[in-house]
Amino acid sequence: MKKKTPNKKTPSLKRRTIKNTDTIEQLRTETLPAKEIKPVKQLICLLGDERLVKEYSTLFQSHGIAVLELKSLATLKTSAKKITVAFELTMLADEQKAINLQVLDEMLPEQTPIVLSSITSTLLLQTHTLKHRDRFIGLAAFPTLLAHQLVELAPSLHTSKATADTVTALFTSVKKETAMVQDSVGMVMPRILCQIINEALFTVQNDVSSPRDIDEAMKYGTNYPHGPISWGELIGFNNVVTVLDALYHNHHEERYRVAPLLRQMAIAGVFWKPKE
Is residue 138's pLDDT more than 90? Predict the structure, then answer.
């Protein structure tokens, strides 16, 4: 009599009764293995005014994001495909900045967003001759403002939603809030701040008050982090004049006319220091 060979048990498949109420999406998620989504490794490219490059570089690196501080456009070619977002931080919209934008637009992959300072000239004006205008978004890149919580972004008529979302998500990842503002010269905070500094120097020039008294009154009376004159010195009086000149050229309004004393300070660099 033959011995019965024990049957090897095949692993049982778990079955589920399909109900009429089940959706296709429910069935798909139950039957297909979940795909692991790997986070994109960020590489931020920075070029432009040295001071702004350092400020933004410090911010991103402090949150573990790799940064490429671009010293020369010639070195862009080797890293172009790895860059996830590029920043052009030249405040003055001059010929060199136009060259920088053109090279970035030509060499970076089409989907890579480019963020550029658009305080002294609108984003629309700076990018209207470029091929991939939808990838650009404006930024209120101005010395000392990055210390605050809010970052101003200015999309143009061409800026895509994908570009705006990507750049917003980047700033969110470094604990910054963003506000979408109008694409206009000066944007919001730089315009207001430069006007306050300018008015303070008109006041000093007209012998209404001393620099120290103005700074103390504004700092303690309005809860500003600095008095307007000491803040102007931190920003750089030359940067304040650059923004005001751009505003005056764009609007031709008296309120943007630079105080003669402020223009002198832009040359001198330092206005006053408290006595030791």
Answer: yes
Q: Which domains, from first to last, does the chain contain?
A: 43-180 (3.40.50.720), 189-268 (1.10.1040.50)
35-88 confidence digits (pLDDT tens): 554 556 899 999 999 999 999 999 999 999 999 999 888 889 889 999 999 999
Overall pTM surpassing 0.90 (yes/no): no
| 3 state SS for the chain | CCCCCCCCCCCCCCCCCCCCCCCHHHHHHHHCCCCCCCCCCCEEEEEECHHHHHHHHHHHHHCCCEEEECCCHHHHHHHHHHCCEEEEECCCCCHHHHHHHHHHHHHCCCCCCEEEECCCCCHHHHHCCCCCHHHEEEECCCCCHHHCCEEEEECCCCCCHHHHHHHHHHHHHCCCEEEECCCCCCCCHHHHHHHHHHHHHHHHHCCCCCHHHHHHHHHHHHCCCCCHHHHHHHHCHHHHHHHHHHHHHHHCCHHHCCCHHHHHHHHHCCCCCCCC
